[in-house]
Design brief:
alpha+beta; 2 domains; six-stranded antiparallel β-sheet; two-stranded antiparallel sheet
Length: about 350
């Protein structure tokens, strides 16, 4: 989806954003920051690791009109004339500061940079990147002289994990550009995406695949597990995976008809889908093409473990969904007044 192999950082501005409520001041660098080759290499590796498996796509939006979105306007100006990049980076800093209006929002360093040579969906484009680093880490620095290697304590940024970041891609400008956003600090979930950037999801196959699998996972937990039990919950997830493995195009009516034997359960699923959409403010298309990248990622989050109060766990295999149906039975023992699972097998592995 995105490739940084030939990307180049053309310009970089580094400032520090404060917290408006606490009256922490911003720090504005007086000029652009030089990008030396070793730093550029680290920076691009940092980007590549953070966005290589990225699947969610956003665009700038506004309830009234896109022209009211501040970040969309600043983006247009930078792409139109990169010569004023430094001045626009300060405007981005000020916009972020204006949204730092909650006590819990952390101050941090903000990196604003211009990228060229980025490959996105096989298209060579330029982009604007914004990072906010909120968490510093202590590390030991080795300083060598002619006689000794001395140890010094220092503080810096862990380049293996981004706190907050976005890439604004110079494509689909009339629709608010294409924006990739990461926020690994969940304590201020609305601050970065909704208040600073004001972005909304692009409702593509990635979006529909992710939300439909979340719907199935949620239905399995809240309805099937509550009414039937953990085995039935995992059986349903097994059948969901089996259906997705066999179909590149997903049809919701076909899915529910193939998985649910009786109309009552099918109706319960359809009703739950409407509730899920309302509660999560999403609308899932009735037909969509499966995003294999998203499916592979979401599949890993499906739980296939039955935990029992007798300190025994049963792990079922999602790669062989028929095994659970054929070789695991659930029952109730009247004498012990306890539930049990019966597992059939030929030999121990």
């Amino acid at each position: 989806m995105i490739d940084f192999t030939d990307a180049v950082i053309e310009q970089l501005a580094v400032h520090r954003v404060g917290n408006k409520v606490r009256e922490d001041n911003n720090f504005i660098s007086e000029s652009l920051t030089p990008v030396l080759a070793p730093i550029e290499e680290l920076f691009l590796n940092y980007l590549n690791k953070s966005f290589m498996d990225y699947t969610e796509t956003f665009h700038f939006s506004h309830d009234i009109d896109l022209s009211y979105n501040v970040m969309n306007g600043l983006t247009q100006k930078i792409f139109a004339d990169p010569r004023n990049f430094y001045e626009h980076s300060i405007e981005i800093l000020k916009q972020l500061y204006e949204q730092s209006n909650h006590q819990n929002i952390k101050s941090g360093d903000i990196f604003v940079f211009e990228l060229t040579g980025l490959l996105y969906n096989n298209q060579d484009i330029n982009a604007i990147g914004i990072f906010k680093s909120e968490n510093k880490e202590h590390f030991i620095k080795l300083v060598e002289n002619q006689k000794n290697i001395n140890l010094l304590r220092d503080v810096g940024i862990n380049i293996k994990k981004i706190d907050k970041a976005c890439l604004i891609l110079n494509t689909e400008a009339e629709d608010g550009y294409r924006v990739l956003s990461i926020d690994n600090n969940k304590y201020d979930a609305d601050y970065w995406k909704l208040e600073f950037l004001k972005i909304d999801y692009i409702k593509d196959n990635n979006f529909n695949t992710k939300n439909y699998l979340n719907l199935c996972k949620s239905f399995a937990t809240e309805v099937i597990a509550e009414n039937a039990g953990k085995k039935e919950q995992i059986d349903f997830l097994n059948q969901t995976i089996k259906y997705f493995d066999k179909n590149e195009k997903i049809n919701i009516e076909e899915f529910s008809s193939s998985l649910f034997e009786n109309q009552e359960t099918k109706n319960a699923f359809n009703s739950y889908k409407k509730r899920f959409e309302d509660e999560n403010d999403v609308e899932i298309a009735d037909d969509f093409e499966l995003s294999k990248t998203v499916y592979k990622k979401q599949k890993r989050s499906f739980k296939n473990l039955i935990k029992l109060d007798t300190n025994i766990q049963i792990k079922l295999d999602f790669n062989n969904p028929e095994s659970s149906e054929k070789f695991v039975e659930k029952g109730y023992d009247d004498k012990k007044e306890m539930y049990f699972y019966k597992v059939y097998f030929n030999k121990e592995m």
